[in-house]
Design a protein that fits this description.
731 residues, alpha/beta, 6-stranded mixed sheet, 5-stranded parallel sheet, 23 helices, binds alpha-D-glucopyranose
Length: 731
């Protein structure tokens, strides 16, 4: 029995086992100045050059020589304590200035112990879980020599056609901000110089998720208001949490590509937000300024990127190739180079690399796939699974009744890891089928029913139907394999791939109690299946412990508590569809001449914040501490939450506000808070939220934060629809 209570203990355990770190080196700036004064221009540009190692973690033949010559400052992908120490020894013993080398890697949702994909972890609405998984990932990655991760990805995503929606925390800036800060804390720990601290990287700066038509890498056209209200907040939260680096994105933003955009990279990040961290470009994004049509050639691209505010060029080599002559011709002044190098040296010093450049090779074996890590992965995966429907109490399943598991993904060891799996390996995965077999004494049979692309043949369907006929309950595992979402994996349709829907209907027609388990990287349009299937569980990609976590939930050891971090559409034509939309002058209604479609309701299949439990919760007794407030005061909102069912469970109670009339129209709802409440059967608790200036303010017409007098509506609810409603006036 996995105790859900494990989380706080695990977090405490990991934090206390964090190795003692060094205080930030004294006289940091003086040391940087002294070092900078000794560096040649070529060595300076070496610190700004990052190249990739092989996917298997090995370095490339040219890397040792470049490190010795001081023309390479960091790599991505190179990993393994022994291997990274090999290269570090070259930097520390053979190079002229002995500047430590920095190893980066995409540790997105785990290093070797793989946690649910970020969209799944976001479904937990649990910042402790997010912090814990990042802390564990940092412990494993740092033991392998990696001290910089390209995570958290904090891109707001309002378009599920965009494959990278799977890598983020969904559509809401508040939830996204809470989780971004939690993950930065987890990766970086309390002291960035500690050997198990990993520099985090908020990416992809900025509005990469606003790609037109959901097509990855496509142009974005976003008003400054929407940038500041929707896309900036998770980055601000990450930086406020101390995030050491930011990654500039691929996309063209309003005509100026983000990796050559001085407004976003310098004016906002550095001048307005006063942030002194390192900006690394995305992979060849500097060179891509040429196809974007911003730069005419490599020299222009290098100058645009450096002068806009990119410090480290990932993989392309234009800054190293062209900046020396641009400096010689007086087109780029060397102090601009110095500023970028200063930031890189500061990062390496804050990481403690000058004092402790090498990785303790004895840690790796004990850290990788440690039992506590796998336990945490199982607990967090269970918290990430969203119970979308459970008509007639089909779930939880009885452990005495035989189960037929249908679907190729059920026995696929790679799919549950999702995309960006770090050093994760399919041989570590507890497949869904294995987990279900280990979770019950009853017979568990399996038939693929369709291949990983969802293609059904008469024989495969016949076999699946026969296996299902022999069982008392049927668990259908359907969805997308892991390569149907993630980078460069946008889809124009959100339907279940292939013929899965037809096969699912045939299986349902057998009349057995049937559960639809969805493993996918984005909301899918299920059509009438959404109403035909009595039980639907969204598991996203749950990670290494997928099968154990699914069994815990299906057989009831874990009562699901997750909530959708994204709106779930009825069909792709509704996109973009998100809960915090404006009301329009003709809000959707029965009257013809209102804002709606002829062929589909304007409402989602399931709303942002939706998720069921095996028990039921009832909210009551909404109270406001006052009917009026001014912007300097705080208003307290309380409500009672009762567990009216027969099982203990957690409810995530959500607070939403609406500013009814303001000088700029405001969304019909905005998430302003949430609380997880654990209740035994019959137990009742009070949830309390504070409303103050932070919750009330918005950007006025000159984009300055303001609180305006007037009526506000407030909801305390179980999703972004319905809930207990009240109102108050700001005077
Ligand atoms: C990729 C991704 C980025 C990743 C980088 C390094 O193209 O856009 O998220 O961190 O390259 O792998």
């Amino acid at each position: 029995m996995i105790s859900l209570r494990a989380l706080p203990l695990l977090l405490l355990l990991l934090v206390t086992t964090a190795l003692p770190g060094l205080a930030a080196p004294p006289d940091l700036e003086a040391r940087i100045d002294a070092l900078l004064g000794k560096m040649t221009l070529e060595e300076k540009l070496g610190q700004l050059q990052q190249l990739d190692g092989d996917a298997d973690g090995t370095y490339r033949a040219e890397h040792p020589g470049m490190i010795q010559a001081g023309t390479l400052g960091s790599t991505l992908n190179v990993r393994g304590a022994r291997r990274t120490n090999e290269l570090q020894r070259i930097a520390m013993e053979k190079s002229r200035l002995k500047i430590p080398f920095l190893f980066a890697f995409d540790v997105i949702h785990g290093y070797r112990t793989i946690f649910p994909v970020p969209l799944g972890e976001a479904s937990s609405w649990d910042p402790r879980a997010a912090e814990l998984s990042a802390r564990i990932a940092a412990c494993e990655a740092s033991a392998a020599g990696v001290r910089w991760t390209f995570a958290p990805m904090v891109d707001i995503a309002r378009d599920p056609r965009w494959g990278r929606i799977v890598e983020g925390a969904g559509e809401d800036p508040y939830l996204g901000s809470v989780l971004a800060a939690a993950r930065v804390r987890g990766f970086q720990g309390k002291d960035l110089s500690a050997p198990d601290a990993v520099a985090a990287c908020a990416k992809h700066w900025v509005a990469y998720g606003a790609a037109m038509a959901g097509r990855d890498y496509n142009s974005t056209d976003v008003s400054e208001r929407t940038l500041r209200e929707i896309y900036f907040p998770p980055f601000q939260a990450a930086l406020r949490a101390g995030c050491a680096t930011v990654m500039s994105a691929f996309n063209d933003l309003n005509g100026v590509p983000t990796s050559g955009n001085p407004w976003t990279l310098t004016d906002v990040l550095r001048r307005e937000w006063k942030w002194d961290g390192v900006v690394v470009s995305d992979y060849t994004a500097v060179a891509e300024l040429i196809p974007h049509g911003l730069a005419a050639d490599g020299a222009e691209a290098a100058a645009y990127a450096l002068l806009a505010g990119v410090d480290v060029e990932m993989v392309s080599r234009l800054m190293a190739a062209h900046i020396p002559k641009l400096v010689k011709w007086g087109l780029v002044n060397e102090p601009a180079v110095d500023e970028a190098v200063r930031r890189v040296l500061r990062l390496k010093m804050r990481l403690g690399l000058f004092e402790r450049p090498y990785t303790d090779e004895s840690r790796e074996a004990s850290m990788i796939l440690a039992k506590d890590h796998l336990t945490a992965a199982r607990v967090i995966a269970g918290r990430s699974m969203v119970l979308l429907r459970n008509e007639g109490g089909v779930l939880p399943l009885s452990p005495e009744r035989s189960v037929a598991v249908i679907g190729a993904l059920a026995d696929d060891p790679k799919a549950p890891l999702g995309s960006w799996i770090g050093d994760g390996r399919s041989e570590d995965t507890v497949t869904l089928l294995r987990g279900l077999r280990e979770g019950t004494t009853a017979r568990v049979t399996h038939a693929a029913g369709w291949d990983r692309e969802g293609q059904v043949t008469p024989a495969s369907l016949a076999q699946a139907l026969e296996v299902a006929r022999q069982a008392e309950t049927v668990v259908i595992v359907a969805g997308e394999h892991q390569d149907m979402s993630g980078e460069a994996s946008s889809r124009s349709s959100l339907d279940l791939p292939g013929d899965q829907a037809r096969a699912i209907r045939s299986l349902k027609a057998l009349g057995r109690p049937t559960v639809l388990v969805l493993m996918n990287g984005r909301p899918l349009t299920l059509g009438s299946l959404a109403d035909e299937m009595p039980a639907i569980l969204e598991i996203w990609y749950p990670g290494t412990e997928a099968g154990h976590a699914l069994a815990d939930v299906l057989f009831g050891q874990v009562n699901p508590s997750a909530k959708l971090p994204v709106t779930w559409p009825r069909n792709v034509g509704q996109i973009p569809l998100f809960y915090n939309q404006r009301n329009t002058g003709r809000p959707p209604g029965a009257e013809k001449y209102t804002s709606k479609y002829l062929d589909v309701p304007v409402t989602p299949q399931w709303p942002f914040g939706h998720g069921l439990s095996y028990t039921t919760f009832v909210l009551s007794d909404l109270r406001l501490s006052s009917a009026t407030m001014d912007e300097s005061e705080t208003l307290t909102v309380t409500a009672r939450v009762r567990n009216t069912g027969k099982r203990a469970g957690d409810e995530i109670v959500q607070l939403y506000l609406r500013d009814v009339a303001a000088s700029v129209t405001r969304p019909v709802r905005e998430l302003k808070g949430f609380q997880r409440v654990s209740l035994k059967p019959g137990e009742e608790k009070t949830v309390r939220f504070e409303i103050g200036r932070e919750q009330l303010q918005f950007l006025d017409r000159s984009l300055k934060p303001v609180v305006e007098p007037g009526q506000f509506r407030v909801w305390v609810g179980q999703s972004s629809e319905g809930g207990l409603e009240g109102s108050f006036v700001v005077d």
